[in-house]
Amino acid sequence: MSKKRISVENKSTYSVCTICDIGCQLRTESIDGRVNRVVAHDNPMLARNICYKGTAAPHIHNHAERLRVPLKRVGERGKDNWQEISYQQAMDEIAVKLKRITDSFGPEAFAVSTSGWNTQTTHSMDRRFMNLLGSPNWISGVALCAGNTAAVNRLTYGWFPMPDWGNTNCIVLFGHNPRKHSWTPIYNSIKSARARGAKLIVLDPRVSDQAEQADLHLRLRAGTDAAMCLGWLKVIIDEKLYDRDFVNDWCEGFEALCDRVSEYPLDRVEQITGVDRNHIAEAARIYAKANGAVIPWTPITDQQISSTSAIRLHSILRAITGNLDVVGGETLGGFNPGYIPESELALHDRLSDEQKAKQLGFDDHPVFTYRVAEILKEPTNKVWGFPYADLVMGCHMANPTNVFRAMATGDPYQIKALFVLGNNTLLSYANQHQILKALNNQELIVAHEIFMTPTAMLADYVLPGDVFTERNHIADSWSWTNRLTLSQKAVEPPVQASSTFEFWTDLGRRMGFAEHFPWDSLEDLLDYRLSRSNRTFAQFEQTSYMEAPTPKFRKYRKTGFATPSGKVELYSSILADLNFDPLPYYREGPSPDKKYPYLVFTGVREDPFFQTGQRNISVLRSRCPEPKLYMHPIDVSREGFEEGEWVNLETPSGKVSARISVQESMKEGHVRVPHGWWYPETRFEAPLSGAFISSDAVLCSDEDEFLDYEQGVPNFKGFPGRVTKSSLPRVLENSAFIER
Ligand SMILES: Nc1nc2c(c(=O)[nH]1)N[C@H]1C(S)=C(S)[C@@H](COP(=O)(O)OP(=O)(O)OC[C@H]3O[C@@H](n4cnc5c(=O)[nH]c(N)nc54)[C@H](O)[C@@H]3O)O[C@H]1N2
Ligand SMILES: Nc1nc2c(c(=O)[nH]1)N[C@H]1C(S)=C(S)[C@@H](COP(=O)(O)OP(=O)(O)OC[C@H]3O[C@@H](n4cnc5c(=O)[nH]c(N)nc54)[C@H](O)[C@@H]3O)O[C@H]1N2
Ligand code: SF4
Ligand SMILES: [Mo]
User: Fold this and answer.
1) Which atom from ligand 1 is nearest to the alpha carbon of 424?
2) Which one of 148, 446, 587, 640 has the fewest CB atoms closer than 10 angstroms to its CB?
3) Are residues 527 and 466 in the same domain?
4) Residue whose CA is closest, atom 2 of ligand 3?
5) Which tens digits make up the pLDDT trace of 679-726?
6) What pairing do the DSSP bridges indicate for beta strands 170-174 and 670-673?
7) Are both 298 and 396 inside the same structural domain?
8) Nearest Cα residue to 201 out of 270, 288, 264, 328
9) How far is Cα 319 from Cα 329, in angstroms, rounded to an integer?
10) Sign of the C-alpha dihedral, residues 645, 649, 655, 659?
């Protein structure tokens, strides 16, 4: 495989930052072949889109602990003993072992877990490889993020909208809390819209940063978002605040929806959510009357027991208030016509129907699996010109819980090989004990990583990855928008590191798929993708750093919507066919009781880290040295705790430790636990670098009764737990970051 070598002069290039998943375009300055600084964009319009994680990129990319050579496990799995091995030798061995496993257990015995966005070089390459091999079992953290939301949005109107930030008059944040150092571009978009006079409504149990400056803040009980939306619909329908023409012309099932909504009078919604009915009505009126309002995607409703209904309710609100594909509302972008999308590169049509039907989750939780994707093939083709629209990578996934169960128990069949690329699998889903069991039951685990994470520690082979300053790329927001954004290689990666494109190509060629991996370099692949607009990557980078087609509105008037009926399906024909409730509903999660008196939610992202990452980067870790449980002062004093004290938080699934942080802004009776904590500094003292000390995934159940029915996603927003006194865990006593 050839790599385009670059000159070693001092230079400044465009980069798409992948420290987090919003992908700001920044400038990278390099000196003598080494990244020196990552700085703001040279276009003043884009220069605000940078946070201190992005500027910390050189600390991450040049870090002493960055993985630079391939490693092969020596001795027991998870004990962190390795021998160095060459990349070519590792790939030879991996290919032989994978072949042996899939020959004896079938291709479905091979699973991949990746988030795809940070490795950039096309998640479609992993799907391509899997589709050629015959495995449908691809899972991703996006099953708990925008990926599953995209899949659920498609049920209602066939696409996943993006707010028209520049023109909107009203923004509704269901929990979502963008800040200056957390999804900075969205934070900036909200700020600009507010400066123009747009209204802001926030629904959050806590007084979040966005709630603090909102026009209206509804402090709902965690996990009750679906009930809240049903309350809004009740007001909007009763007061005839919906867009009658759009409903008549373009919506299916309005009457059935009205019947369902009538089951949620405001006194019932008040009782469920804990929010005054007058405030519920006021918020619904502001939203419906705004003439251009948006409900931006939020991860909060991705991770609830009524997730499918809550996401559908957002879709339904957008539709019946006439906010779909209009100026100031929510735009339906579609594929960029000049760039071959990942969905097409993935070769989903090569996977047989028989193998698709083996996808774990297909039978019991089908909404983001191939089962629904197949139903939507024809309508998608009609409207968007391509049948497999894998939006935000989330529309053809296996269900993670089903996959870990199969890995751990062999039910309904064996999974014996797991490849992990740019994902910290052990901490990134629900029920960490089960995931550990699943990983320990594998015959082959390959981790493609930049640091020795707890997940990588459990692997047989750890392959060092390249990073965004070391590769060329054109980002297309995973087909969420049709904008193309340039990212240029600034410096060479470590000699033995690979991009994921190289990894899949080298493996594919070793396993008999050479004709389907014809590109010799990443630039060849980018040339191929750009061939649709008759240009090469070299031409693109000379002429453009960002391009987006002029937006068109109300496109559905020409094509209809990409649903089976061609309309917006308020009553979902797909859910009905799959024997689920075709109308949205609210389902109560598990309630606190004497033993577990608090309602726990995970999340509230910490500015210095992205998800499970960066705990080893001093400039970032020093800003947030340890995990904090937020509790209301009344709860803290009732329990006899003090600020800064170490406590245990326990659920029936497990127990973690963290420090108490007393916060007026918390809602009484609620506890917040952060996501993704492990302690890289304890690598040689604690098993798996302390992956079980504070990780939220230890607490979250993946038992059937706690999963959303339709997608099978776990409930991270409102599950019972108890807090008890504890002390600083012994293995953290020597941590350089933690105060005693
Ligand atoms: N329990 C629990 N699970 C969750 C969540 C939660 O709140 N709780 N949140 C969910 C959400 S919202 C999301 S978006 C997902 C996120 O899931 P992911 O995006 O997969 O995030 P991480 O699991 O932190 O894993 C990212 C890994 O990629 C590595 N990495 C970074 N850059 C590169 C690179 O260029 N190449 C390679 N090879 N590796 C790289 C990092 O070192 C890190 O270990 O997790 C979801 N899972
Ligand atoms: N610095 C930094 N920025 C990030 C990330 C990161 O890891 N670090 N991750 C990125 C990613 S992948 C994601 S998904 C986003 C996530 O970021 P956000 O969307 O902002 O989500 P959180 O910060 O987890 O929580 C936001 C709010 O949800 C509230 N909340 C909790 N439970 C409920 C509930 O049941 N209903 C409602 N309505 N609100 C509730 C919490 O009180 C909190 O204020 O951030 C992105 N930005
Ligand atoms: S918000 Fe920060 S970390 Fe995320 S892409 Fe932008 S600069 Fe990078
Ligand atoms: Mo996310």
Assistant:
1) 23
2) 640
3) yes
4) 51
5) 999 999 999 999 999 999 999 999 998 999 999 999 999 999 999 999
6) unpaired
7) no
8) 288
9) 10
10) negative
Looking at residue 691, what DSSP letter applies? Answer: T
Residue 493 alpha carbon to ligand 3 centre in Å: 21
**One domain, residues 374 and 507:** yes
**Count of domains observed in the chain:** 4
Q: Which two tokens stand for residue 257?
A: 């929806």
Q: Which residue puts its alpha carbon closest to atom 8 of ligand 2?
A: 610
Whether 21 sits among the annotated catalytic residues: the reply is yes
pLDDT at residue 634 in the model: 98
The ligand 2 site (C-beta within 6 Å) comprises: 20-21, 145, 174-178, 181-183, 203-206, 208, 220, 222-223, 225, 298-300, 601, 603-605, 607, 609-611, 717-718
Mean pLDDT of the chain: 96
Tell me how far the alpha carbon of residue 146 lies from the centroid of ligand 4, in angstroms: 7
In this structure, are 487 and 506 located in the same domain?
Answer: yes
**CATH number, domain containing residue 633:** 2.40.40.20
Q: Which ligand is nearest to the CA of 57?
A: 3
All residues with CB under 5 Å from ion ligand 4: 145, 299
- Ligand 3 site: residues with CB under 6 angstroms? 17, 19-20, 22-24, 49-51, 53-54, 183-184
Instruction: Please indicate, yes or no, whether residues 144 and 169 belong to a single structural domain of this protein.
Output: no
Q: Find out whether the peptide bond into 412 is cis, omega within 30 degrees of 0.
A: yes
* Residue environment code for 535-563, b if the CB has 16+ CB neighbours within 10 A, otherwise e: bebeebbeeebbbeeebeeebbeeebbbb
Nearest to 287 by CA among 317, 254, 310: 317
Q: How far, in Å, CA of 699 to CA of 404, rounded?
A: 16
pLDDT band at 451, cuts 50/70/90?
very high
Q: Give start and end residues of each alpha helix (H) in 414-513.
A: 432-440, 454-457, 500-510
Q: Which of 21, 164, 204, 708 is catalytic?
A: 21
Residue ranges making up the domain that contains 213: 162-331
